[in-house]
Amino acid sequence: MSKIISLQDAVSMIPNGATIMFGGFLGCGSAHKLIEALAESGKGDFTIIGNDCGMENGSDGEMYGTVKLIHNRQVKRVIASHVGMTPEVGIQNMTDKTLEVDLVPQGSLAEMIRAGGAGLGGVLTPTGVGTIVEDSPLCLGKQTVCGKEYLLMKPLHADFALVNAYMIDKAGNMWYKGTARNFNVLAATAADIVIAEADNLVEVGEIAPENVVTPGAYVKYIVDGGDA
Fold first, then answer.
1. Which bin fits 29, alpha (ψ -120 to 50), beta or left (φ > 0)?
2. Alpha helix segments (H runs only) across the chain
3. Does residue 102 contact residue 137 with C-beta atoms inside 8 Å?
4. Pairing of strands 4-5, 19-22
5. Mean per-residue pLDDT for 117-137?
6. Sign of CA dihedral 47, 52, 54, 55
7. Closest CA to 35 of 54, 57, 15
């Protein structure tokens, strides 16, 4: 059975209220066509998980990345490590009181996603001890190990992960170009349904086995970003 679906079919399977995990780092390596289609869908009440919310002003002056969902007020909760490039997050959270925001140190966020993908019960980290991170709903409290204090952070898992790679074969095997792999690699392991947007969709065998970063076993569906 082919994993390749249309952009419209991909968005149609994402319901209101879904928890969605995104790859990308300030829009670099994001599944832009999937995000754009989701932004145009009118759906909302989403919880989104990712490093950031993209950039309000990209290189062309346009909104870049998941900020489009924020701008449309399609998001009820953000779990991220950096939202400084998207002022609308602060406005909706602090002024309008319409958006819940959980900020997590970047390394902790990456490990929490990894733990969610691996089926682990959480992450022990010294990062954030003695700070407001201790008050986060994602923090399960302190643990002392060998005389040192750690925070126990929840694993993160999503209903859907929208990820992107420069080259994806028709079995879903993924190869990333440069630093665009970022959070895509982790997100692809930590969702019930992974939808991968291919910058270049190729035949099986065109990616050398040793160059596969995310195995196709993780990927449920593929959208051809070159044609979408």
1. left
2. 7-12, 32-40, 67-71, 87-90, 106-118, 184-187
3. yes
4. unpaired
5. 97
6. positive
7. 54
The SS3 of residue 64 is: strand
- Tokens 């997050």, residue? 89
Mean of the per-residue pLDDT values for the chain?
96
The secondary structure of residue 220, as a DSSP letter, is S
> What's the longest Cα–Cα distance across the chain?
56
Cβ atoms of 33 and 228 within 8 Å: the answer is: yes
Q: Which fold has domain 4-104+155-224?
A: Glutaconate Coenzyme A-transferase (3.40.1080)
Q: What is the pLDDT of residues 83-108, one digit of tens each?
A: 999 999 999 999 999 999 999 999 99
Q: Identify the pLDDT of residue 227.
A: 65
∠ CA 169-173-178, nearest 5°, is 95
Domain boundaries in the chain? 4-104+155-224, 121-154
Q: Which residues share a beta bridge with 79? A: 49, 102
- Give dist(CA 66, CA 218) in Å, integer: 22
Q: What span, in angstroms and rounded, lies between the C-alpha atoms of 76 and 32? A: 20
What's CA 181's distance to the chain center, in Å?
A: 12
What pLDDT score was predicted for residue 45?
Answer: 98
Asked if the model's pLDDT at residue 78 lies above 80, the reply is: yes
At a CB cut-off of 8 Å and minimum separation 6, what does 118 contact?
189
Q: Residue 146 corresponds to which tokens in the numbers above?
A: 């060998």
Cβ atoms of 162 and 153 within 8 Å: the answer is no
